[in-house]
Amino acid sequence: MREFPAHRLRCLRALLICIPLCLMAGSARADAFPTERPIRLLTPYGAGGGIDIAARILSAVAEPHLGTRVDVVNMPGAGGLNAAMFTLDAKPDGYTLMISDYGPLITLPLREDTDYGPEDWTPVFQITEIAPTFVVHPDFPEPTLPGVMAAAAREPGRLHATHGAFMSSSHLPLLRLEQISELRMNHVPTLGGGETLQFLLASIVSLAVTNSSSIASAVEGGSVAPVAVATRQRIPELPETPTLLELGYDVVMPVWYTIFAPADVPEPRRRELAARIASAFDTERARSLAARASITLSGTDYDSLQQAYADTVATVTATISALQNP
Amino acid sequence: MLELLISALDVALSPTVLIAVLLGVILGVTVGAIPGISGDMAMALMLPFVFTMDIAPAIGMLMGLYKGSLFGGSISAIMFGVPGTPGAAATILDGFPLKQAGFPNRALHTGLYSSIIGDFTSVLVLIFIATPLAVLALQFGPREFFALYAVSIVIIAALDKGRVALGFSAAAVGILLSMVGRDPFSGAARYAFGSTDLAGGLGLVPVLIGLFAVSEIMLQAGRIFRERFAHLEAGVRQRTAGEGYDPDADRLSLREYATLWRAVVTGAATGTFVGALPGAGATLAGFLSYGLAKRVSRNSDRFGKGSLEGVAAPEAGNSATAGATLIPLFAFGVPGSGSAALIGAAFIIQGITPGPMMIESNLTIVYAIFILLLYGSIFTLITSKLLLPHYARLSMLPPRYILPVVLALAILGTYAIGNSTFDVWVLLAAGIVGVAMRGVGMPIAPVALGFILGPGLERALRQSLILGFNEPGYFFSGPIALSIYGIAATLLLVFVLVGRE
Amino acid sequence: MSLPTQTPEGAVPDTPAPGKGLVIALSVLACSVIAHAVVTDWRPSPGGNPWLVPVIASGLILGCALLLALRLRGHAAGSDNLTAARMHRGRDIAGATLCTGLWGLGFFHAVQEMGLVTATFLFTAVGMLALSPDPRRALRVVLPLTLAVAISFWLLFTRLAPIVLSDPLFW
Predict the structure, then answer these.
(1) CB A178 within 8 A of CB A172
(2) β-strand pairing of A160-163 with B189-190
C-alpha cells in the first residue's frame, strides 16, 4: 500500500510528459502519417479468397514498416459496393483503404448507377497480378487456342464456354476475345473458380476461363490443359502457355489485387503509403508468406501503376460499351 | 503403407496438433452456439493465425472449429430456437419444442450423439470411398442439381400431412425472397426498387435467424410481458431454474437413443451424400435428412412437436457434411462449400494446393488429416459431454433474463458477418414477417428452405437452359438426373400408398 | 415456459388454420410479382430471363392459393371465427412485436452512438427489467448479470470477432 502514492506520482509525471508530446504530434500531423492510428483495409469479398489472403499478408508484415497496425475488414455484399462506399465515405486521410480487383471499382460503376466512378480511385500499391487463363479438357480434339477458335467457328454459338460470375474479370476477357474474333460461343456463368473447374473436369463445357491459381493443381496433374493467358507477358507458373497477344488477339485484361485510396486522399500521403507498403513487402517474411500462398508479388512502381490502372479502365470500358452498343 | 501410417500418426498425434484440435473444438462449440457467428466466420477469423502455424496444427484447428461449430450451432437451436449456424436451422423444428417441454438435456444429447455418428460416418467415407463418390459428385452438373433441388423442395414442402398446398406456397415465398437482389445472369437488380442495399440481396443469416429466432423472441417477450401483470395480480411467483426444471427427468438413456437408429442412419447417409456434392452444404443436408427421416419414421406424426428423431436426423445430416465436404476438395481441388473453401485457403496459405496432386505429393499430411478428423469427433464428444448439462441448465433460466441477451447477440452477430447495417434491418424485418407467418399458420421451415435453395435452383435451371439451348428435353437427358426423378417418384408413390392405410 | 411434466410431444400450441386472409395475401403477392415481371424492362440475359424463376414461383403460389381457397369453401363454416378475443390477442402480439423490434433498432443504434459496452449494459438491463414481474427486486440479479454480459460482448465483438464501430461517445 505504501508504494501506491509513488506509483501515482509516476503516472502523473508520465501524463505531464505526454501532454506536450500530444501537442507536438498535433502540430506535426503530416509527418506523423501514417502512424497516428491503425489503417483500415477494406476487402469487398468474404474471408478466405485470394484478395483476403493478400490483405492478411500485408497485415502480418505491415507494423514495423508502416508504424501502425493494418486491420483487415471484410465487407462483402452488393458486389463490393458496400466496401467501396464505406471507403469513399470515410475521411480522406489515408487511414481507410480498400484492396480490390477491378470489378467493384471499374465494372460495377460502368454498368450500374453508382455514386462513384473509376476516376474516384487511385491505386497505391499492387500486390499481385493474376492471369485469366483459358483452359480446355485434355480430351479436347485440338487442345490449343486456334483449335478452340476453329471449333467455335464450325458451330457458331454452340461451343460451351464457362467463366466466373456474369461480367466478372474472367468473363470480360472471353467477351473481348469474341468481339475481336467475331466468333460467338455459348457462355455459361458460374459461381466462380470451383464451379468453373468442376464443369470443365466433368466435360460439361469445352472451354473455361478462370484464374491461373484456381487451376494450378489440375494443370500439374494433367486433368486440364491451359491454352492461353490474357496478360501482356507469359506468366511464370505457365511458361509454355502463350498469351492471347502472341496468338494475335489484343486481349490484355490481367486481374490485379491492388490497394486503392480514394482519389481525394492527398498525393503525398498516397506516395508515403506506397513507399512504406513496398518496403513491408520487400522483406524475407513477406516473400515467404506470399510464396507459400502462391502469390507472385508484382514490383510495379507507383507511377506505372497509375498507367496500368488507366489501361484497365480503357479496356474494360471499351469491352462493356461494345456490348451495350453492338 | 505401414511406414506412411506411422509417419502420419507421428504428425497427427504430436502434442501441438492434439492441443490445436482440442482448442479448435472448444472454440467451435462455443462460437457455433453464438447466434450469427457461424463456423465459417470463426474459421475465417482464424485464417490469419494459420500463417504462423505449421500445417498439421493449422488444419487440425480449423477442422476442430468446423466440427465443433456444426454441433455448437444446434446448441443454440435447441436452447433458444436460434440457429447458431445456418446448418442447424432444421434442428430447431423439433429441438426447440423439446426444450420448451422441459427436456433440453435429452434434445442436446440426442443432437450430440447423432452429430458424432454422422461426422464419423462421413470421415470414414472420406477415407475409404472418397474416389468413387467424388467421381459421382463431379458429374453433378446443373441438370442434376436442378433435379436434386426440385426434389428436395418437394420433400420438405410436403412435410405436413394435409398442409401440402401451404407448404408449397411457403417454399415459393422463400424462393421469391431469395430473388431480391442482383440477377447473377444479367446483373439486373430485381425487386430492389432503387435501393442499393436491396440490390445486394437479403443475407442468409439475417433471414434465417430473423424468421426462426427473432419472431420467437418477439412472441415470447410479448407473452412474458403480459403474464407479468397476471402474476402480480395472482400473487404467483414465476418458476425459475431451481423449481420448474427437473434434471433427473431430463436424462437420455443410451437404450432410448438406440431406438432412434432409423433417423440417425437416414441423416448420416443423406448428409454424407449431400456434403460430397459441390455447393449443396450443411443446411440442405439438415433439412433433407429431416424430411426423409420423417418419411421413414414409424412416428412421423410426432415430428415438429418435439420428436427426438426430429433432432437426431438433421444433426446427423448436417454433421455428416464435415468429412464429405472435403471429398471434392481433395479429389479435384473443387471446394464444395464455404467451409471447404476456407479449409482450401488454409492449405494454400500453407503452400499446398488442394487437388489430386496433393494426394500424390503430400500423402503423409493427407493421412494425418484423416486421423485428426477421426479424433476430432471424439474431442467434440468429450468437450460437449462436459459442457452440455451446464448448457441445459442455462437454457432453463427464466426467459426474461435470456431473451434480451439472445436478441442483442443475434443483432451484433448478424452485423459482425459483413458489417452491414442493412443486415440488421433485414434481421428485424424477418422477425416481424416470421411473427406474421406464425399468426396465419404458415410453416416457416419451407420458407427457409426455399430461401436457401432459391439461388442454387435458379442457377441450375438457367445454366441448364443455356447448356441445353432452351430444349426442355435436356433436363431429362442425363442418367443421374433421371434416377433422381425416378427415386423421388418411387418415394412419393410409396408414401402415398403407405399413407392410405 | 411450459411445465416439465408435459410430454415432449404436443408441446407446441396448435397453429391456426389458414384463413381467407392468407389466401388473399398469397394471391396479391403472386399477382404483383407477375405484373411487375410484365411491365419491367428487364435486361436480356441468357438462359431464360431474370423474371423466369420469380414467375414460376408466383405461378406455384397462385396454384396453392387456389387449392387453399377450395378447401376453405369445403368447410367454410368454422373458419370465419374472427372473434373479439382473437382480435385482441392479435393486437397484443402486434404491439409486442413492434416493441421488440424498436428495442432491437434502438440497441443497434446505441451501440454505434454510445458504445458497445454502455449500450449492451443499458439495453439488456432495460429489457430484463421490463420482463420481470417485480423490477425492483430483480435489480439485484439484473445488474451483475448485465454487467457480465456487457463485458463478454466487449470481448466477443472487439477481440474475437471484431465489428466495425463508429467512434462512440463511451466505450
Answers:
(1) no
(2) unpaired
How far is B305 from A298, CA to CA, in rounded Å? 60
- Which CATH fold would you assign to the domain A33-129+256-324? D-Maltodextrin-Binding Protein; domain 2 (3.40.190)
Q: Is the dihedral of CA C119, C121, C122, C124 positive or negative?
A: positive
By C-alpha distance, the chain C residue nearest A187 is C46
Q: Do B101 and C4 touch (CB under 8 A)?
A: yes
Measured CA to CA, the distance from residue B29 to residue B69 in angstroms comes to 5
pLDDT, tens digit (0-9, with 9 covering 90-100), for B246-277: 667 778 888 888 888 989 999 999 999 888 88
Chain B residues in contact with A292 (beta carbon < 8 A): 349-351
Largest CA distance in chain A: 94
| Local structure of residue C16 (DSSP, 8 states) | P
pLDDT tens-digit series, residues B15-70: 888 999 999 998 888 888 877 677 777 787 777 777 778 888 888 888 888 888 88
Closest Cα partner for A168 from A134, A191, A199? A191
Is the separation of the CB atoms in A208 and A159 below 8 Å? no
Residue B458 distance to chain C (closest CA, Å): 6
Task: Tell me which residue has cell 430461401.
Answer: B451
Q: Is the bond into A34 cis (omega within 30 degrees of 0)?
A: yes
Of the candidates A259, A296, A307, A308, which has an alpha carbon nearest to the alpha carbon of residue A128? Answer: A296
Nearest CA in chain B to C41: B188
Q: What is the spatial distance between Cα A36 and Cα C53, in angstroms, rounded to a whole number?
A: 52
Site from B65, B136, B334, B358 to mutate, A interface, most A CB atoms within 10 angstroms: B334
What average pLDDT does chain C have?
79
Using a CB-CB distance cutoff of 8 angstroms, which residues of chain C are in contact with residue B231?
Answer: 133
By DSSP bridging, strand A207-211 and strand A160-163 are: parallel
Radius of gyration of chain B (CA): 22
Domain ranges of chain C: 20-78, 86-160
Cβ-defined contact of B408 to C153 (cutoff 8 Å):
yes
Report pLDDT digits (tens) over A174-208: 999 999 998 999 999 988 777 888 899 889 999 99
What are the angstrom distances between the C-alpha of B207 and each of A80, A177, B75, B450? 20, 41, 19, 12
Please report, for residues A108, B205, B271, B436, C151, the alpha-carbon distance to residue C98 in angstroms, rounded to integers and kept in the order given. Answer: 37, 21, 39, 12, 28
Are the beta carbons of B2 and B10 closer than 8 angstroms?
Answer: no
Q: With an 8 Å Cβ cutoff, are C46 and A187 in contact?
A: yes
Determine the Cα–Cα distance for residues C86 and B462; give it in Å rounded to an integer: 45
- CA–CA min distance B417, chain C (Å): 8
When scoring C164, C165, C166 by the number of chain A Cβ atoms within 10 A, the one with the most, hence best to mutate, is C164
Partner residues linked to A228 by β-bridges: A134
Closest CA of chain C from A303, distance in Å: 33
Compute the count of residue pairs across chains B and C with CB atoms less than 8 Å apart. 265
Q: What is the pLDDT of residues A63-110, one digit of tens each?
A: 889 888 898 888 887 778 889 999 999 889 889 999 999 999 999 899
Q: Helices H, strands E: what count in chain B?
A: 25, 2
The CA-atom distances, in angstroms, between B377 and each of B70, B233, C137 are 11, 51, 45
Buried b (16+ CB within 10 A) or exposed e, B437-475: bbbbebbbbbbbbbbbbbbbbbbbbbbbbbbbeeeeebb
Report whether B65 contacts A70 (CB < 8 A).
no
Q: How many angstroms separate the CA of residue B418 from the nearest CA in chain A?
A: 5
A132-229 fold: D-Maltodextrin-Binding Protein; domain 2 (3.40.190)
User: How many Å is the Cα radius of gyration of chain A?
Assistant: 23
Handedness of CA B183, B456, A77, A106 (dihedral sign): negative
Beta carbons of A53 and B345 less than 8 Å apart: yes
